[in-house]
Amino acid sequence: MKAVITVIGKDAVGILAKVSNICAENNANVIEVTQSVLQDMFAMIMLVDITNINNDFVALQDKLTALGDSLGLKIHTMHEDIFNTMHRI
Amino acid sequence: MLNVYDILETIRMIQDECLDIRTITMGISLMDCIDSDIDRACEKVYEKITRCAGKLVKTGEEIEKEYGIPIINKRISVTPIAIVSAACNASPVKFALTMEKAAKACGVNLIGGYSALVQKGFSAGDERLIRSIPEALASTTCVCSSVNIGSTKTGINMDAVKLMGQIVRESAEATVDDQCFGAAKLVVFCNAVDDNPFMAGAFHGVGEPDCIINVGVSGPGVVRSALAKYPDADINELADIIKKTAYKITRVGQLVGVRASEKLGVPFGIVDLSLAPTPAVGDSVAYILEEMGLEKCGCAGTTACLAMLNDAVKKGGVMACSRIGGLSGAFIPVSEDAGMIAAAESGSLLIEKLEAMTAVCSVGLDMIVIPGDTTAEVISGIIADEAAIGMVNSKTTAVRVIPAIGCKEGDVLDWGGLFGKGPVMKVNTYSPSKFINRGGQIPAPLHSLKN
Question: How close, in Å, is residue A13 to chain B by CA atoms?
């Protein structure tokens, strides 16, 4: 089972580190990361494997959302199926 | 890996363009609750509803989190109560109170099925139920009622049409202290469908399984933003854009329905391919029509734009889900659509135009506030006209008009929330009284003979 974490907002030092840190704490394995900074806007998309997470998925989501709130960023953590169903026939 | 553009598109649709699942509706059969003792029957109804739907809201919320998509409503529809209550020789209002209690216990916001199917005549219990509708709607908050008075196969039951004109008025009168809200929970159908997930017209048809999950999708905001990116496209291109967008919206409905069905251990029924507006800014069907190039919804060209929109939504959605059902099409409720409200207030959108629009889209004259002094016969006439459109075109049509008791043209009824607010609209007051009082049945049209 995989989830997609998207982080959108103003660029700052250590965003990737902080998000990865929460993933590591919850035993979510980061598979792939793409990120870009356009002008001041930071956009990162991270694909993580959540098969063996040591907490439930909702708890991981809540932690990441809270991190986003504290950094002034929008962090969405969504099951990959919503993207697969929507964009693939 | 997933394409970055696709991921951001999905997030934008949900975040900025109001993409949501409008409703997960659990249909529950109450056939096994029938009992000649009304108290015993109500006990069984309460037990069955709470047993089947006890986890519905919690499951819905879990899925919302998992996929990051809002599921606005979790609702219940039940077997038409006229059938369930037919064996009891007592007022069926007790069933409405039981439905209300069960809905509250399950945490759903609306429960539908205080209904009767009388397209060809009244059977035992039907008339008693219909006459109890005003009291039932006034003494409950989340119970919805519907009556099917015609179909392409049977024609239109004009005795029921006459009666429903009175019942719509009485429902408004009984709730006059609450903005005539009773009438907003009452739908009069022609060609009602058995698996409709949308309120207030949802009921669980008699041919349906014991318990089932139906999903209604939404997304007018998404369609409008997609069209806004192509200001100079021709109509073919617009139709293509709508199809692609509808496909994506419907896929989410299918995903959520399958997941809900797995989690609840209940079979998945249908996805209702609908563009269902809400009063939220940016979630309007009227604004889609205006985006296509109309100065104001209701002006010349509106019916053509709506016909194209409705058709493209179905074509896009049809491949995106395993089974389609319900009402499937664009909804045009006036009070629940910011653009429709604005068009009605500006005088561009009239009831006569709305009637024409209902010939080419889903459902019918929906959430329209009419003057408080509109007679029952005029309401019956409106119902008959709308039913005739449904009967002849083999489609579902409905009337949900709210007589604003004590109000006149230009006043506003405001219910807030999903029901929105609506200006009192002008109605032709010449009387169809003699026609309505004739009674009888309008015969089914020739093209109903398909065998």
Answer: 22
- Report the pLDDT value the prediction gives residue B266, as an integer from 0 to 100: 96
Most A CBs within 10 Å, among B5, B8, B9, B11, to test the A interface = B11
Mean pLDDT over B316-335 rounds to 92
Cβ pair B322, B249 in contact under 8 A: no
E strands present in B45-181: 71-78, 111-117, 143-151, 155-157
The sign one gets for the Cα dihedral B79, B101, B47, B106 is positive
- What H or E segment, with its residue span, contains residue B416? strand B412-416
- Taking residue B435's Cβ as centre, other Cβ atoms within 10 Å add up to 14
DSSP string for B234-280: -HHHHHHHHHHHHHHHHHHHHHHHHHHHHHHT--EEEEE-EE---SS
CA dist., res. B28 & res. B204, Å (int): 6
Contact residues of B toward A, CB < 8 A? 1-4, 6-11, 15, 62, 65-69, 248, 251-252, 254-255, 319
User: A30 — contact with chain B (CB < 8 Å)?
Assistant: no
Q: ipTM for the complex?
A: 0.84
Helices B126-138 and B158-174, interaxial angle, to 10°? 20
- Quickly state the pLDDT bin for B218 (edges 50, 70, 90): confident
Q: Would you call B97 exposed, middle or buried from its count of C-beta atoms within 10 A (0-12, 13-18, 19+)?
A: middle
Task: Provide the total of helices (H) and of strands (E) in chain A, helices listed first.
Answer: 3, 4
Largest Cα span, chain A = 39
pTM of the model: 0.92
Q: Which two tokens stand for residue B91?
A: 């007022």
Interface probe with A: pick from B9, B65, B222, B249, most Cβ of A within 10 Å: B65
Q: Which of A26, A68, A70 is closest to A48 using CA atoms?
A: A26
* Alpha-carbon distances, residue A52 vs A27, A28, A66 (angstroms): 7, 7, 22
d(CA B406, CA B244): 47
In a 3-state reduction of DSSP, which class is residue B172? helix
